[in-house]
From TrEMBL:
It comes from the Eukaryota. This is glycerate dehydrogenase. GO terms for molecular function: glyoxylate reductase (NADPH) activity; hydroxypyruvate reductase (NADH) activity; NAD binding. The keyword Flavoprotein does not apply. It is found in: Peroxisome. Keywords: Glycolate pathway, NAD, Oxidoreductase, Peroxisome. It comes from Asparagus officinalis. Residues 130-322 form the D-isomer specific 2-hydroxyacid dehydrogenase NAD-binding domain. PROSITE patterns: D_2_HYDROXYACID_DH_1. Its main location: other. GO terms for cellular component: cytosol; peroxisome. Pathway: Photosynthesis; photorespiration; 3-phospho-D-glycerate from glycine: step 3/4. It holds the Pfam family 2-Hacid_dh. The lineage of its organism: Eukaryota, Viridiplantae, Streptophyta, Embryophyta, Tracheophyta. Belongs to the D-isomer specific 2-hydroxyacid dehydrogenase family.
Length: 386
């Protein structure tokens, strides 16, 4: 028999049993569910990553919906168990859903929710922070101070890269990539080169208008270019930030050959998913190119780093915290809960992901819609008219 899993229960007499595999920030998400007749069970097991067996034990034989995490493996085994337990709803508390087998969920009629929009600016801000930390060697300099090694100003001490007037490269200019590009362009007057499968029209218009504004004020205008190939970005840019989804087209997008064509003093930032970079190749590249720097929020074998990475002074590493602002994390919890609630209640799908704010307003009830269900079309969920 499976080991019992410890849980905290809200609204024990609720009609719909909804599980959250982790405690999530804020309480609004719990209230939204309990107000709508859900019994909410939050896993309190003292274990960072739950196994498939742990989650099977949580689902049990009656469960209407689950809010899960990006560290969990949501595939055939869990979706078939959820279906057997009467469930129709699942949401990741994340925008990325590479940990989810959407086809398996669809096969069992289960909606897969995610949380786009609410983390765009927060994640872009972390990518910008990593760009600055790497270019100005902030972490190395901090460690030097704390080690008591500073004995006076020196002309060569921790010399880094100036961003102003340099070129920022964005690979994957979707919501987060575009927000990051704007920060680097507005903040540091960098020129843009980007690569995406689709044209980033709004971003292009913004850079054009900002360039005209600068020119009208007697300043050097910023420019943009949509690259025909990813290699063009890698060759031309001084700072390159990766923001694509992780799928088979982006696995090891940055490999040994592509690292070799980047500038020797380039800065590479990754706040997308670890496997977008071949991390073994990256460690080798960092070793032989001390002026090349990286800022990493995500890792190929998370939570582990590939051997040698931690020893590299030219790498700034943080533990997957790009979406970690209070507002964003509470918002992610709310969107995930509303995805599950909406699917259970048979609500239509929200169609304007640029307007997820309406679900986050504490002072008014959220629309009767599912904020974001990635397989809505396959499941025949209708579009909201709100
Ligand atoms: N580190 C974190 O905490 C964190 C936080 C949020 C999101 N993310 C990751 O960032 C990703 C992007 O989020 P988003 O909200 O901007 O999504 P998005 O869908 O708006 O943007 C992704 C972009 O990648 C582009 N793309 C897809 N395949 C590509 C390819 N082969 N080459 C180039 N571009 C390609 C798409 O066309 C799209 O424009 C998420 O899927 C998630 O994995 C990480
Ligand atoms: O995909 C996501 O949402 C992140 O990785 C967690 O914020």
């Amino acid at each position: 028999m499976a080991k019992p899993i410890s849980i905290e229960v809200w609204n024990p007499n609720g009609k719909y049993r909804v599980i959250s595999t982790k405690s999530m920030p804020g309480t609004r998400w719990i209230k939204l569910l309990t107000d709508q007749d859900c019994r909410v069970e939050i896993c309190t097991e003292n274990k960072t990553i739950l196994s498939v067996d742990d989650i099977l034990a949580l689902i049990g034989d009656k469960c209407d919906g689950v809010i899960g995490q990006l560290t969990e493996d949501w595939g055939e085994v869990l979706f078939s168990a959820l279906r057997r337990a009467g469930g129709t709803a699942f949401s990741n508390m994340a925008v990325g859903y590479n940990n989810v087998d959407v086809n398996a969920a669809t096969k069992y009629g289960i909606g897969v929710g995610n949380t786009p929009g609410v983390l765009t600016e927060t994640t872009a801000e972390l990518a910008a922070s990593l760009s600055l930390a790497a270019s100005r060697r902030i972490v190395e300099a901090d460690q030097f101070m704390r080690a008591g090694l500073y004995d006076g100003w020196l002309p060569h001490l921790f010399v880094g890269n100036l961003l102003k007037g340099q070129t920022v490269g964005v690979i994957g200019a979707g919501r987060i990539g575009s927000a990051y590009a704007r920060m680097m362009i507005e903040g540091f007057k960098m020129n843009l080169i980007y690569y995406d499968l689709y044209q980033a029209t709004r971003l292009e218009k913004f850079v054009t208008a900002y360039g005209q504004f600068l020119k009208a004020n007697g300043e050097q205008p910023v420019t943009w270019k949509r690259a025909a190939t990813m290699e063009d970005v890698l060759r031309e840019a001084d700072v390159i930030s990766l923001h694509p989804v992780l799928d088979k087209t982006t696995y090891h997008l940055i490999n040994k050959e592509r690292l070799a064509i980047m500038k020797k003093e380039a800065i590479l930032v990754n706040a997308s998913r670890g496997p977008v970079i071949d991390e073994v190749a990256l460690v080798e590249h960092l070793k032989v190119n001390p002026m090349f720097r990286v800022g990493l929020d995500v890792f190929e074998d998370e939570p582990y780093m590939k051997p040698g990475l931690a020893d590299q002074k030219n790498a700034v590493v943080v533990p997957h915290i790009a979406s970690a602002s209070k507002w964003t994390r509470e918002g992610m919890a709310t969107l995930a809960a509303l995805n599950v609630l909406g699917k259970i209640k048979g609500y239509p799908i929200w169609t304007d992901l640029n307007r997820v704010d309406v679900f986050l307003d504490e002072n008014s009830p959220p629309p009767a819609a599912c904020p974001s269900i990635v397989n809505a079309k396959q499941l025949g969920i209708s579009a909201s008219k709100l």
